[in-house]
C-alpha cells in the first residue's frame, strides 16, 4: 500500500498539486540564494527591525534608551514608562493594558535575556479560562538598578535604587535599595556599601 499524504487525502487533486509545486519552487529559491544561511539572514533582519519597531512604539521614554536585536514588547507598549540612559539589551517586556504598568527609572541596565513580566495568567482556573484570564500587577525598577542576565521580574515587584539582581534570579517580592539578591526565588544576599 502506498504512503499517502494526509493533504492528498483531504484536498482536491488540483489544489494538492499546486501546493506541491509552490513547495518545490520555494526550496529551489532558497537553495539558489544561499540555503539555510540565507533564511537565517532574513530572520536576523526581521528581528532587528522588530526590536527597533518595538522600542519606537513606546511613547513614554527619556533620552538615550538603548536596545539590541531580540528586544521585544509582548504587550502594553502604551503602559511602559522609561527614564533616560537605560540599556534594555535583548529583554522582553510584558506590560498590562491597565494596572500592569512597567516603570524603569534612569540609569537602569539589563544583562541579556531579562524578562519583565507585569502580566500573568490566573492559575486558579483551568483549561480555556486559564488561557484567557489575565492578571496584571505593576513593576517599578528604580534608578541605577542592575538586572543581570537571565533574570525574571514578576508583577507586583519594586526593585530598589542601585540594587543588583543576580543572573538567573526570579524576583517575586520587593528588593530594597542597595541590596543584592540572587536565586530562584530571589533571596537577599547583602547590602552594597554606599555614602
Overview of this protein structure:
The protein folds into 2 domains: 8-57; 58-190, UDP N-Acetylglucosamine Acyltransferase, domain 1. The chain is built from 4 helices and 19 strands. It has helices at 6-10, 13-32, 35-57, 128-132, and strands at 60-61, 65-66, 72-75, 80-82, 86-87, 92-94, 102-104, 109-110, 115-117, 119-121, 134-136, 139-141, 146-147, 152-154, 158-159, 164-165, 170-171, 179-182, 187-191. The strands form 5 sheets. Strands 1-4-7-12-15 form a 5-stranded parallel beta sheet, with no helix packed on it.
Based on the model shown, name its key terms:
5-stranded parallel sheet; UDP N-Acetylglucosamine Acyltransferase, domain 1; single chain; 195 residues
Amino acid at each position: 500500500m502506498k504512503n499517502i499524504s494526509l493533504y492528498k487525502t483531504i484536498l482536491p487533486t488540483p489544489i494538492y498539486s499546486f501546493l506541491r509545486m509552490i513547495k518545490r519552487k520555494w526550496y529551489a529559491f532558497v537553495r539558489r540564494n544561499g540555503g539555510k544561511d540565507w533564511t537565517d539572514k532574513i530572520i536576523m533582519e526581521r528581528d532587528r527591525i522588530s526590536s527597533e519597531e518595538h522600542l519606537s512604539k513606546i511613547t513614554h521614554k527619556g533620552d538615550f534608551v538603548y536596545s539590541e536585536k531580540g528586544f521585544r514588547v509582548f504587550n502594553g507598549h502604551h503602559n511602559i514608562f522609561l527614564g533616560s540612559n537605560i540599556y534594555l539589551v535583548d529583554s522582553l517586556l510584558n506590560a498590562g493594558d491597565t494596572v500592569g504598568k512597567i516603570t524603569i527609572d534612569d540609569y537602569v541596565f539589563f544583562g541579556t535575556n531579562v524578562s519583565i513580566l507585569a502580566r500573568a495568567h490566573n492559575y486558579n482556573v483551568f483549561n480555556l479560562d486559564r488561557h484567557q484570564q489575565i492578571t496584571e500587577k505593576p513593576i517599578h525598577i528604580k534608578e541605577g538598578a542592575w538586572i543581570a542576565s537571565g533574570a525574571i521580574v514578576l508583577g507586583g515587584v519594586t526593585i530598589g535604587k542601585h540594587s543588583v539582581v543576580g543572573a538567573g534570579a526570579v524576583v517575586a517580592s520587593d528588593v530594597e535599595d542597595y541590596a543584592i539578591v540572587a536565586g530562584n526565588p530571589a533571596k537577599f544576599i547583602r547590602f552594597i556599601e554606599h555614602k
